[in-house]
Amino acid sequence: MPSGVTLTPSGDIIVTKAGTVLSNLDVRGQIWVRAENVTIQNCKITSDNYYGVRIDHGLKGVTVKNCEIDGQGQVLNGIGGAGTFVGNNIYGCENGINIEGNVATKIEGNYIHNFLNNEGGHFDGIQIFGDNANVEVVHNTIINDGSPNGVSAIFVANTFGAVSNVNIHDNYFSGGGFPLYFDGTKSSAAITGVSWHDNYVVKGGYGYEYIRADSQGHKPASSNNIMVANGVPPAQAPDKYSGGTPISAPAKKASRPPAITD
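Above: the chain's sequence. Below: its structure in token form.
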């Protein structure tokens, strides 16, 4: 979130009008997107709901950028849905981003860290769990520091259906049991066209990559990743792996807009 932005307080927001733009809000609750071509930008979202930002399946053109999402140890997914997610600072959640719905998705320049769930949980930075295609994950910094429950920085599985065409490159991944996780045994659906390459990968508690082929024998294509047992902090890693960085919250206004946006 850019420095110097002044935020206006808000409660829960449900967006039902296509093309809505939400900017510069201090949201205490959840933003639920139920329309296409919605943009959420420069907002602070502090939630104790199931999501920080919830996007209905199948919606196109949804963008979440330059937002700070604090899950307070209550939120399952900081962002749940499909779209363009750029430059967000996500923390205090069980999972940072869960891609839901078969809509092309780009995840770029996000900082996902300080995983938390008050009832335990299995923490993942980004989840791609099925019925997903055409996903790019690039220039993110994910530090899965949710010990002892950290699982991965990015987890690809066929739990809810087929997965295809996933390009994971030029990220900084650290922590969990395995930062890179691929499990094709969750169903009989195929996982094809998954590639993770040119990433900076700091060894997790058990290793770097966990790979189990799908029923057709498909595995991810893995190449040119820098695997290090004790990596340097993100700020000291080569610039090509740089992702989002934390920014302090801006000042707030006293006024409060309506809770429902349509």
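The two ends are 24 Å apart (CA to CA).
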